[in-house]
Q: What sequence folds into this?
């Protein structure tokens, strides 16, 4: 490796962060070939050239109860990264992507080690624990925020904050410019789904902890939908956390389900082929919003995690499209509200009421506009080089 090459540690703990990290690495490489990444990520970051020390799937858990079960793995991973920060060949900078409970602790260690920190996709202080802004300012040098309402939260603090737009827009723009965003007909043919069938997407999430609490609800909802509307076919995108054989075992042989692996079609193509989608809350809801497909959002977690979260979270909505719009533009059902009966009823309403579906599509177009403009990854890459330049001057 070139002695002048910059070594960047990059850490994310989720599938969405793996996507955004990969796009950032590509944007950095377009500016400089002498930058090498290593750290925690997934297959997309590895394909972009990152040396994966720890697969992010090992850390991808959400909720108090779920985290406790993974504490040994999380602790050993943290200690390994800490050794890298304090080693004889420490990184030139640390890039953190979302995953706040783990990453903020790592940022604190980086500052102690004298490694500058760029935090990309800041902790959701607008949703809960707003007091963290001071802690973030103490351990983070530069903060890239993805929603326009975030910078004001850090006013008066010693931290550089830049609104960079939403990273999904880069992915979506690239696909729209060259890849099969308009290939729904071809995808239907490739998946061998008859043109007479109505299609509903079932998006179970990317974390094992999500599957534990939500896959059963999705299967039961699909069964109720099929009982009411036999002419429906279901599409289930497969993430690393759910294998095709496992999915088939969960859904059984009676339901008409096609499982779509990541290499077979983009999430946008899958979404555009659906009349509506039952999806877990999370980044995927913004991907569905960009595709313009009506959706029903739901989320379930352990009762203990939910009870704690309900006291701490201070937002009116759970789904990101609703948060961006600052109003309810798509239906959402959380915890005890997320019954198979409620989800099936809402999905059938969207599927069979064109006026209702069109109203939702129009609202999603507004959400698309509110997400900003493409170029997020390039803007974050520039922030990283600015940070590296500052370090060189010191």
A:
């Amino acid at each position: 490796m070139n002695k002048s090459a910059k070594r960047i540690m990059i850490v994310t703990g989720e599938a969405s962060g793996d996507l955004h990290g990969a796009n950032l690495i590509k944007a950095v490489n377009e500016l400089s070939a002498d930058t090498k990444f290593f750290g925690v990520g997934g297959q997309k970051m590895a394909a972009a050239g990152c040396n994966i020390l720890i697969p992010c799937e090992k850390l991808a858990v959400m909720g108090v109860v779920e985290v406790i079960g993974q504490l040994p793995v999380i602790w050993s991973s943290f200690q390994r990264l800490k050794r890298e920060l304090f080693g004889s060949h420490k990184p030139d900078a640390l890039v953190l992507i979302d995953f706040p409970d783990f990453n903020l602790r790592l940022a604190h260690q980086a500052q102690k080690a004298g490694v500058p920190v760029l935090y990309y996709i800041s902790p959701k202080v607008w949703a809960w624990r707003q007091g963290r802004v001071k802690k973030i300012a103490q351990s983070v040098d530069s903060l890239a925020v993805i929603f326009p309402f975030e910078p004001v939260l850090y006013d008066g603090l010693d931290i550089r904050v830049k609104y960079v737009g939403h990273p999904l827009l880069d992915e979506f723009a690239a696909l729209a410019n060259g890849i099969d965003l308009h290939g729904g007909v071809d995808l239907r043919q490739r998946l061998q789904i008859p043109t007479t069938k109505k299609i509903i997407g079932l998006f179970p999430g990317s974390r094992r902890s999500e599957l534990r609490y939500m896959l059963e609800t999705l299967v039961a909802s699909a069964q109720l939908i099929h009982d009411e509307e036999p002419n429906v076919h279901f599409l289930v995108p497969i993430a690393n956390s759910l294998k095709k054989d496992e999915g088939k075992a969960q859904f059984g042989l009676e339901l008409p389900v096609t499982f779509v692996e990541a290499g077979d079609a983009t999430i946008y193509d899958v979404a555009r082929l659906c009349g509506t989608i039952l999806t877990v809350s999370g980044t995927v809801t913004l991907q569905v919003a960009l595709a313009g497909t009506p959706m029903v959002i739901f989320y379930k977690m352990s009762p203990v995690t939910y009870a704690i979260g309900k006291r701490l979270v201070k937002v009116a909505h759970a789904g990101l499209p609703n948060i961006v719009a600052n109003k309810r533009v798509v239906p959402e059902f959380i915890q005890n509200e997320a019954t198979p009966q409620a989800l099936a009823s809402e999905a059938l309403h969207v599927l069979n009421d064109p006026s209702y579906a069109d109203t939702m599509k129009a609202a999603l177009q507004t959400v698309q506009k509110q997400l900003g403009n493409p170029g997020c990854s390039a803007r974050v890459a520039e922030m990283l080089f600015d940070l590296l330049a500052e370090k060189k001057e010191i």
